[in-house]
Amino acid sequence: MAIWFLRSRLAHHLGQRIGSLDALKLSSWASSLHPWIPPSLDSSDDRYASKFLRNPMDLYAARRFRSAKAQESVPVVTDGSNQVMDFPGGKVMFVPELRFLAESPGERISCYRILDDDGKTISGSSFQEVSKEIALKMYSDMVTLQIMDTIFYEAQRQGRISFYLTTIGEEAINIASAAALTIDDIVFPQYREPGVLLWRGFTLQEFANQCFGNKLDYGKGRQMPIHYGSNRLNYFTVSSPIATQVPHAVGAAYSLKMDKKHACAVTYFGDGGTSEGDFHAALNFAAVMEVPVIFFCRNNGWAISTPTAEQFRSDGAVIRGQAYGIRSIRVDGNDALAVYSAVHAAREMAIRESRPILVEALTYRVGHHSTSDDSTKYRPVDEIEHWRTARDPVSRYRKWIERNGWWCDDAESELRSNVRKELLHAVQVAERMDKPPLAELFTDVYDQVPSNLREQERLLTELIKQHPGDYPPEVPV
Ligand SMILES: Cc1ncc(C[n+]2csc(CCOP(=O)(O)OP(=O)(O)O)c2C)c(N)n1
Ligand SMILES: [K+]
C-alpha cells in the first residue's frame, strides 16, 4: 500500500510537470515548420536519423529530432525580440507575433500501407517479412473468424444465445496484430478483438462455451456472450464499460517494466473509446512513466451510431499520441501486412526502449454494432457495401498469398468446410452442456460471502420454488 502510494505521488508529480511539457513539445513541433529550420539534416543528424530511418515508421522520431536540433541552432537576436528561454523540457523561443497554434496541421497524417486494393505489394514498401507458415495461419484464422461470426450471429437470431457482436471488416486488425505479438505480451481487449484470442489458441469450443454460458465457461455464465477471457493465454476478460482496460494495460506494463520482463502490454479500443477520460489518463501516465505498452486504436468510423465526425475534431487518434509525447503511427487496418509490420515494430520499440507506442488503424465496422443494433437506421447502405466488398481485408490478403503460390481454390473450400463443421459441432456441444449451478452466481467475488448476498440467494431460491415453471429447467438450483 505504501509503495503504491509513493508511486502514485510520483506519477502525480510527473503528471503535473508533463502538463506544461506538452505545450513545449507542441511549440517545438510548430517551430519545425518555421522557415529558418534547415531543410535537411546535417551529417551528425544523418547518423542519428539513419539509425531511426532503417524503419520508415520512425520517420516521426527523426522529424522530432530534427525539430529539437533546429531549436538548438536558433540564432539569438539581441534586441530581445527573438530570445530563447531555458525551461523544463528544453529551450523555448520567444516570438513577438501574436500567433496561435492552428487547430489542425493542414495536411492529414498519412497512412502506412503495403498491399494495394488488389493485394499487390506497393513498390518500395518496407515491411517485416512473414514466413509462409505464419502467412497461412494468418489467413486461416481470418477465415475462421469470419465463419465464427456467421454461425454465432445466426445462433443469436435463432434465439439460442442472448447476444452477439461481429468483427466483420476488422479481421486483419485482429489476426495480424496478434501474429506480431508473443504469448507473454498481456492483452487488454475492448470486445471486437476475439481474433487475438483465436490466434493464441482459444479453441472454437471455448468460444462456444462462453457464448452459451455453460458450466465450462470460465466466467461461469455470469457475463453476456462475447465477454471472453483466458488466464492461460494472457488475455484479460472483456469488460463492457468502454476504455476501462486502457489504464489497466498501463499498470500491467509498469509492472512488466519493474520485473524486467521481455514483454509488453497491448490494449485495444475503438474511436469511441478515445473520448473517455480513461484513454487520456492512460496515455499521459504511460508517457511519463515510460512503460512498454501498445495502444491499439481501431478507428472504424462508428461508435454505435456516432460517426467519427461527431466523436472528435482532431485528425483521428494518432495525433493525440503525439500530443502526449507518444511515438505513434497510422496504418491501413485492412492491410494485414501493414498491421503486422506496424505492431511488430511497435513491440520492438516498446520493449527495447521501454516506451508506449500508439497505433491507429483506419478501418470500418462492416457489421451492425451488435445484435441489438440496426445500423441501416443511421448510415447509408452503399457505404457499408463499399467497405464490405471493395475494401474487404480478407480477400485482399488472399490475393497476396495466392500471388505467392501459397493458396488455391481447393485449399479455400477445404478450409471453409472444415471450419464450418468444427464450429457447428462446437455449438451443439456447448448448447447441450449443463449450465453452472445457481449457487455459483454468488461465489468468486468475496472470500466470505456477505450477508446481503446470502439474503439475495435465499430470496431467489424461494422465488424459484414459488414459480418453478418460469425458471429455466436446464439450470441446476
Ligand atoms: C463507459 C461506457 N459508455 C457507454 C457505453 C455504451 N457503448 C457500448 S459500445 C459503445 C461504442 C463504442 O465504440 P468504439 O469504442 O468506437 O468501438 P466499436 O464498437 O466501434 O468497435 C458504447 C457507447 C459503454 N459500454 N460504456
Ligand atoms: K472495458
Task: Describe, in plain words, how this protein is organized in 3D.
Heterotetramer of alpha and beta chains. Pfam families: E1_dh. GO terms for molecular function: branched-chain 2-oxo acid dehydrogenase activity; metal ion binding. Residues 142-436 form the Dehydrogenase E1 component domain. The protein has 16 helices and nine strands. It is an alpha/beta fold and 477 residues long. Helix 12 links the parallel strand 8 (327-332) and strand 9 (357-362). Helix 7 (204-212) runs parallel beside helix 15 (409-432). It starts with a helix and ends in an 11-residue tail after the last helix. The structure holds thiamine diphosphate (TPP) and potassium ion. Thiamine diphosphate (TPP) binds next to strand 4 and strand 6.
How would you summarize what this structure contains?
The chain has 477 residues and is α/β, with parallel strands linked by helices.
Which SSEs are present, and which pair or pack?
Elements lengths: L1 H30 L11 H11 L5 H14 L11 E4 L2 E4 L38 H26 L13 H9 L6 E3 L5 H7 L3 H9 L32 H14 L6 E6 L6 H13 L3 E7 L2 E2 L2 E2 H4 L6 H6 L3 E6 L3 H17 L4 E6 L18 H9 L3 H11 L5 H24 L18 H16 L11
Parallel strand pairs: 3-4, 4-5, 5-9, 8-9
Antiparallel strand pairs: 1-2, 6-7
Helix pairs in contact: 1-9, 2-3, 4-5, 4-6, 4-14, 4-15, 5-6, 5-12, 7-15, 8-9
Bound molecules: thiamine diphosphate and potassium ion (K).
Potassium ion binds next to loops.
